[in-house]
Design a protein that fits this description.
It is a single chain. This protein is α+β, with helices and mostly antiparallel strands. The protein contains four helices and five strands; from the N terminus they run βααβββαβα. Strands 1-2-3-4-5 form a five-stranded mixed β-sheet.
């Protein structure tokens, strides 16, 4: 595989079977997620697929947003075989390029290990985490 990566937001170009396998089998935050949930979430979101020079999906990101005030960047995954080849940077750059013009007050994400990648694109640590709360699954 070459390092050339193209990012698409066309869901028809994003293989949701591959996304489902990645998320449900390899992503610590989505282990066991059903194919139906992956597809429903994708259809209700703005999707970003990183495609290699052969058109093969090598990375995915999803943005949940009202497109006016808030967005949540989630389900970011890069195929282990493509890591270090620019897919993550391409995805992060495409997401930022898509949300910046919207003038959103807040774009959030959670990451266990990619802080430096996201800092390159302007993300910062939360300065007041005591204000954040979460409602867990029912």
């Amino acid at each position: 595989m070459t390092a050339a990566v193209r990012v698409t937001t066309d869901l028809e170009d994003i293989d949701l079977d591959v996304v489902h396998r990645w998320l449900s089998e390899e992503a610590y935050w989505a282990l066991g997620r059903s194919r139906e949930v992956v597809e429903a979430a994708a259809r209700a979101s703005v999707n970003f697929g990183a495609l290699d020079a052969d058109g093969r999906l090598v990375g995915y990101a999803r943005v949940v947003t009202d497109q006016v005030t808030f967005a949540w960047l989630c389900d970011v995954f890069v195929d282990p075989a493509a890591r270090g080849l620019g897919a993550g940077k391409a995805l992060a750059g495409a997401v930022v390029a898509a949300v910046r013009p919207l003038g959103l007050k807040r774009v959030m994400l959670a990451t266990a290990d990619a802080h430096e990648l996201y800092r390159r694109f302007g993300f910062e640590g939360v300065t007041d985490p005591e204000k954040l709360m979460i409602l867990g699954a029912a």
